[in-house]
């Protein structure tokens, strides 16, 4: 559910008390561990943490007017969620995250970047904090730019050489066209 709130305080004030308390606790952990090159604000109808244009002028490739998203907090219809782009698309980081969460004994309900929870007790706050801390903005930007670079530019030098064209089969010999018979004359 996208909120129409324009500030984080408005967003939190619009939530029921239990959700406000849970998201505020997760928010406090994120802010405590967030690199100084990130900013907090409203993005896509949720509380967002992003790389501002002052740090990464190109912005988000999908919509360059938007700063580069890094993490988000949201109250959805049936759950709350923290979205961690620092885990999405990075197999080593995701593996670390899943293993660290498992060590807490808490059940992980996770999609690609979305960690869903119904109450604060379901969240491994220390793991969320460490995931945020492990990804300073410069490291995140480096991964992001390498991930969106076109495949041709990612190839190692010399790897872009094309393979020789496969030999084409000689054209099949065609039969000479059949001679047409002169049209029969009509009897009158």
UniProtKB/TrEMBL annotation:
Domain YdhG-like positions: 19-134
Transmembrane segments: none
Segments of skewed composition (Basic residues): 164-188
Region named Disordered: 150-188
Pfam families according to UniProt: DUF1801
UniProt-recorded name of the protein: YdhG-like domain-containing protein
Organism of derivation: Cystobacter ferrugineus
InterPro entries with a match to the protein in the record: YdhG-like (IPR014922)
Domain of life: Bacteria
């Amino acid at each position: 559910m996208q909120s129409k709130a324009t500030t984080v305080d408005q967003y939190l004030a619009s939530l029921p008390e239990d959700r406000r308390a849970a998201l505020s606790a997760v928010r406090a952990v994120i802010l405590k561990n967030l690199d100084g090159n990130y900013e907090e604000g409203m993005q896509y109808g949720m509380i967002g943490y992003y790389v501002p244009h002052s740090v990464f002028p190109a912005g988000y490739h999908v919509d360059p007017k938007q700063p580069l998203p890094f993490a988000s907090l949201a109250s959805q219809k049936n759950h709350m969620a923290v979205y961690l782009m620092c885990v999405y698309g990075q197999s080593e980081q995701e593996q670390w995250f899943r293993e660290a969460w498992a060590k807490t004994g808490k059940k992980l309900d996770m999609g690609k970047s979305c960690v869903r929870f119904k109450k604060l007790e379901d969240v491994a706050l220390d793991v969320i904090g460490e995931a945020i801390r492990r990804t300073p903005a410069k490291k995140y930007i480096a991964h992001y730019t390498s991930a969106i670079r076109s495949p041709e530019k990612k190839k190692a030098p010399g790897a872009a050489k094309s393979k020789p064209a496969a030999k084409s089969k000689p054209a099949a010999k065609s039969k000479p066209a059949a001679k047409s018979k002169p049209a029969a004359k009509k009897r009158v």
